[in-house]
Amino acid sequence: MTGSKHPASAATLADPVLEIRDLSVALPAWADRPLAVKSVSLTVGRGETLCVVGESGSGKSVMARSILRLLPEPHLRIAGGQILLDGEDLARADDRRMRQIRGGEISMVFQEPMVSLNPLMTVGRQIDEILEVHTNWSKAERRRRVIATFEDVRLPEPERIVGAYPHELSGGQRQRVMIAMSLVLEPKLIIADEPTTALDVTTEAQVLTLLKELQTKHGTALLFITHNFGVVAEIADRVAVMRYGELVEYGPAAEVLEHPQHPYTRALIDAVPSLVPRKHPKPDATAPSESILMVRALEKTYGRAASGPNWLARVLPGLGRGRRSAVKAVNRVDLEIRRGSAVALVGESGSGKSTLARCLIGLEQADAGSAMIAGDEIVGLSRSDWRPLRSRVQMVFQDPFASLNPRTKVGDIIARGAILQGVNPETAMDQARTLLGLVGLDARAAERYPHEFSGGQRQRIGIARALAVKPEILIADEPVSALDVSVQKQVLDLLDDLRRQFGLTMLFITHDLRVAAHVCEEIVVLKNGTIVERGMTADIFANPQHDYTRTLLASVPGRNWQRRGHPEAPAPLGQ
After folding, report:
1. Three-state SS for 91?
2. pLDDT tens digit sequence for 263-316
3. Radius of gyration of the CA atoms of the chain, in A
4. Would strands 342-346 and 505-510 be described as parallel, antiparallel, or unpaired?
5. N or C: more exposed end of the chain, with fewer CB within 10 A?
6. How far apart are CA 367 and CA 364, in angstroms?
7. Coil, helix or strand for 448?
8. pTM higher than 0.70, yes or no?
């Protein structure tokens, strides 16, 4: 392990809340290695933030779950070492004591709140349940505490949200509920397992700031698990880097970020997308330019939601309560994309990006306006009329596991589109194997199923499937938002290479301007269904015109840290 000679922070030396000593966690016999965590030692001090960094499979989440004894025993089990909370060894605590520890002295914020929250209970009741188990307070006292905690995490209208169900809240609000749940009993330690990975950059920035403020207010120790060094630069006091279950680097955040010692740490830092846009030649205004996609005054409105039937409301509480106002997801959008160009469509969740993309690929029907692909109108087409155009435009989805049939072999998944377009099945399968090679996978992967691949590999399969029908336009909808930074960089580089190799026109949808700058020469900024800014990537990074664009840029985690390595990067907002 490199970096272990770095002195720990004064808080850690003087007042450790958590000490992990030579922790090892055993994997089942059929796993690819014997130990998920191998002889890991680290400490977290009172009021300190320790970030544990590593790719998927590095053992960081297994290590964190070991602290709360949430391992799926007997398949994963603590094989050795100590987990000391204020000197008490949790590795040897009985079940009754661990129930007291969980939520009371140590709490956890999970990556996906929609999975962690009970959909059939109001969020207020879910937090009230924790107080009911751990305290002898009255119902009125518990309610006051829940509302006060919601106010602490800056949830709007906390008295209303107490009675809301998880599906009635935005992603950022659900994550704030999870943070409130972790804080309600003022634990000694909070473990945050990738709590901002699925959030917009603006919401992510708000959540990171909130965590730091609440930590300062309550003096809580924070063990923050992430794969993103940008996040580390925002909040960490110290950093622990894990790889294949081992701690490879450990030290103060400033030293690890500025002078990483281990090659793996340097590789992770190098994989963080740069704040300096790639240099793309500006289009020649005098040269003839063919528009492959032309959108004019396109609109899509989601209307009022009628109340559900009484029996359905009883089965699914909260469904159909009241009526939702009409929402213009796409509001008179004008967009023109030149053949062979790469355009980023940027905005937060709810800005209308994905709805616009779905209208352009025929998965949603626009209400008004015009959209033409190479001169052919697509608005108002029936499913059968769309079929001949399917080969012209294809989509790479955000979640490759949800968009790949788990019961179908990868080769058949890739070949199916070409077969439906009239290609001979044997020829289509040969092309599928060739495409697997082009996206960096072995041709033999055609005989395997989606669950046998990692997230990054599944995304490559999704790209191969989209290319199988030789499209002219490739729409990539948040294709890297859930990937590790190193895998993210590989997929972005792959998309860039394939675009140039096949002469593709690409519409790249993302909420992160930094990611957009990696592959796109133009950026279109969307807010509340309306385009608020458009221009060359370098121009927008150098001089954003709209306040919303400036907010997106200012929200990029680790922005100031990256500027030290790239002085030509855009200055922080207000400078």
Report:
1. helix
2. 999 999 888 887 777 776 555 555 456 899 999 999 999 875 444 455 445 555
3. 25
4. parallel
5. C
6. 9
7. coil
8. yes
Handedness of CA 66, 69, 71, 76 (dihedral sign): positive
Per-position DSSP letters for 461-526, written without gaps between them: HHHHHHHTT--SEEEEESTTTTS-HHHHHHHHHHHHHHHHHHT-EEEEEES-HHHHHHH-SEEEEE
Half-sphere exposure of 462 (CA within 13 A, CB side): 28
Structure tokens at 422: 């009239």
Rounded-to-integer distance, Cα 33 and Cα 496, Å = 34
Task: Using the structure block, give the residue that is written with the tokens 């790719």.
Answer: 55
What domains lie within the chain, and their CATH numbers? 1-48+55-99+224-270 (3.40.50.300), 338-365+377-392+472-575 (3.40.50.300), 398-470 (no CATH)
Residue type, 480: V
Cα 298 versus chain centre, distance: 29
354 neighbors 399 (Cβ within 8 angstroms):
no
Identity of the residue numbered 483: L
State the CB neighbour count (10 A cutoff) for residue 95.
7
State the amino acid at position 48 in one-letter form. Answer: E
The string of pLDDT tens digits covering residues 123-139 is 999 999 999 988 999 99
Residue 506 contacts residue 476 (beta carbons within 8 Å): yes
> Are 179 and 153 in contact, with CB atoms under 8 Å apart?
yes
Residue 313 main-chain phi, psi, to 5 deg = -65, -30
Helix (H) or strand (E) holding 39: strand 35-45
Token couple for 257: 């970020």
User: Residue 574 carries which DSSP code?
Assistant: T
CB within 8 Å of 350: residues ≥ 6 apart: 170, 528
Sign, CA dihedral 426-430-436-442, equals: positive
Return the closest-CA partner of residue 224 out of 557, 467, 568, 493.
Answer: 557
Cβ burial of 36 (10 Å; 0-12, 13-18, 19+) is buried
Taken in order 92, 93, 94, 98, the sign of the CA dihedral is negative
Contacts of 72 (CB under 8 A, 6+ apart): none
